[in-house]
Amino acid sequence: MYKIGELSEMTGLQTDTIRYYEKIDLLKPSRVDPNNGYRYYSNDNAKRLFAIIEWKKYGFSLDTIRELMQCTDNERLREVFGHKLKQLDMERNQLDKTMRILQQRFNAMMEDSTMGRNRVLLIDDSAFMRMMQTDGLNKHGYEVVGEAEEGEAGIKQFETLSSDLVVIDIGLPDMDGVAVARTIREMDKGVHIVMCSARGHISQIVASLQAGADEFVVKPFQMETLVAAAEREQRDGYEESTMSALLADRRIAENVNHVLSQPVIDALLHVCREGFRPGDDAYESFWNDVSIMTP
């Protein structure tokens, strides 16, 4: 048997952390002394703590870890671990892209480059969000040349400004951001359009792509995610037949209000860009990711 201090020293966890795990029923002492309240833990308790530490390193939440510890269905465990592997792989790819962007910026600074800055128009009704985007984009070599809090004002600014990139929030007060993207795309086939929204629904994302958006970023996001979307090479559009198939898929009704994570959104963009169809591995893998994430 181990006292809590011994268990803390063995696992490297703070005693407060161990007590918290007890409080949320992730861990139970093997024996509690009725006279002094001292807790004693067995080897099985220690193994359970090491398992919690290991699973936290994989990025599982404590709620998920509780489910895994109670799960006796190997098929369910394989499904959860398989999904986590795919998620981590996508995050690794995103990290690689971010590192390449940072390396490019660092090299430019070291070489005292005089490279021109991409000009950006921000259309978002949140002044705080525009401020954050301006600060982050400026640090990555962009120049924000215009801001608008409404769609009509944004379109008018685009008419007079020479913008290489437009970042559009979908939830604008006067009109749908998708309609703004469609209008701007009709005005300039070459501009790079990144859509942003806290409601990353499948139908909303597909509608954005059909309107001419190049990328879709779900809020809240790390600035590196927006920069990566801005840096990616502009597409020649997305495959209309694939987008139509997604909207007609019976599974969309089951997930109509489900907000996708950024890695799953990136998988959706890949499916639409490459023109995968129902039955293709990538198409079915996307829906499998959605079903696993659905509460």
Task: State the gist of this model.
Helices cover 57% and strands 12% of the residues. With 295 residues, it is α/β, with parallel strands linked by helices.
How does this model look, in words?
The chain has two domains: 2-65, Multidrug-efflux Transporter Regulator, Chain: A, Domain 2; 77-293, Rossmann fold. The chain has a five-stranded parallel beta sheet with strand order 5-4-6-7-8, sandwiched between helices. It has helices at residues 4-11, 15-23, 43-57, 62-70, 74-110, 127-139, 151-160, 177-187, 202-210, 223-231, 240-248, 251-254, 262-274, 281-293; strands spanning 2-3, 31-32, 39-41, 118-123, 142-148, 165-169, 192-197, 215-218. It is elongated. 27% of the residues are buried. It is 57% helix and 12% strand. The chain starts with a strand and ends with a helix.
